[in-house]
Hints:
Layout (H helix, E strand, L loop, with lengths): L3 E2 L2 E9 L3 E9 L5 E9 L7 H15 L9 E7 L2 E7 L3 E3 H10 L6 H19 L21 E4 L4 E3 L28 H4 L6 H17 L9 H10 L5 H4 L5 H10 L11 H14 L6 H13 L16 H11 L18 H4 L39 H4 L27 H23 L1
Helix pairs in contact: 3-5, 3-9, 5-8, 8-9
The structure holds adenosine-5'-diphosphate and magnesium ion (MG).
Amino acid sequence: MPTRLGRYTLLGKLAQGGMAELFLAKSEGIEGFEKIVVLKRILPSFAEDEEFIELFVSEARLAAQLDHANIVHVHDIGRDGTDFFFTMEYLHGHDVRHLLNEARRREHRLPLKFVLAIVAGAAAGLHHAHKQVDFSGRPLGIVHRDISPPNILVSWNGEVKLTDFGLAKASTQLESTDPGVVKGKFAYLAPEAAHGESVDHRADIFAVGILAYEMLTGQRLFLADTDYDTVQNVRAAEIPSMRAVNPEIPAELEEIIRCSLSRDAKDRYQNASEFADDLLGFLFSRKLKVSARTLRTLLDDMRQKEPAPAPQPKPPEQGNVILRLIEEEFTTFKSIDEDSDAPELGSQPLDSLMAGNMPINYDPAAPLALDEFDVGPSSSPDNEPTPPPAASSSTTAPEGIQATLHSTGNHRVVPSGGGGRSMVPILAVLLLIAAGAGAAVYMLFLK
Ligand SMILES: Nc1ncnc2c1ncn2[C@@H]1O[C@H](COP(=O)(O)OP(=O)(O)O)[C@@H](O)[C@H]1O
Ligand SMILES: [Mg+2]
């Protein structure tokens, strides 16, 4: 992993997709100013491929034009040698895939108003992108084309933001020979895309409908065992009753979601803001208040219920106190190289990624582990990444051990920053003993 790209210091790997990798990075300014950002760089294996570079740069360029509370803000586009990258705001929280996985793990469904807040937020962000115009006021015809759970982020502060405009295109950029190229994850395609026809912003509305369906029922809508069957399901666009799966869904809400999932784009909501308005109207009619605070509270609740780390073995109580301290110190040290099963950097706790690099607004009380982003190489039919290892290094390693960021294969041992188990007190005790012994010998000689 490089340690710097342009004016950014890389702190740790956050995620890796098929075409790019994401890092947590820090930019520095005058007077100790520091800002934590997410840096997305094109994978070195694609860095020579002009088509990929063009796709990548157009993602950054397009996303940088969008300025909306429900869209991740892109700061900067850069190049360092052969590396192309862009930076964006860091959203400290989870993507919707994680929330769905977590709900599945607990055999719970996500609460209705929580789901609707996410869906309405995503729709509002999309509407902003869809209605973009150029300098002369002509619509740009932006379509995200990859609305799916990993591309919707929910922060611990209760914000909902869309990210990954990698497949997004303005209609002006779509080549006429390639209008309906089937891109994106098959299970989140719109029927017209699955038929190879050209798509417009209503394909994104369909994808948000799939998302709403899956979050409300806890079941996948179109995903099948093979890509072929998935695409066939999307083409047919048969929507099973949601209320049969989850009787808590009011009929009125099911109607709204079904409208977004109409097979024919003409029968869908014609713009994402109408969809968002209907969802908010539904919440209002039911006196269900949803705010960023609601989302925050629900996420906090989820965080508290996350599995507790395995208890650590206690050191023996008896015996010589100095020997015990030394023994304890040795058991808390571990070489990174010894741990061949250790997960990649991206799955280390945020605190260890930040060791010695504490950003100004970093909240150490928030125990989000980056492994919870769950990102790995794609494998399943709808291009979903493989799940992460069951336990992160922070739970399997003895308490107090954290791997460092800038390990470059050197055989390094690194004590934890905050555990208070440094060698210093032991050395101080040993030094005192040695000094005492030295003084005694000196006195003997004087006599
Ligand atoms: N700005 C961000 N802040 C925090 N996490 C992010 C951010 N952007 C992306 N992620 C996480 O990284 C993952 C991959 O990012 P994404 O841009 O979607 O890459 P890819 O093009 O490989 O799908 C997302 O699913 C999300 O979990
Ligand atoms: Mg993505």
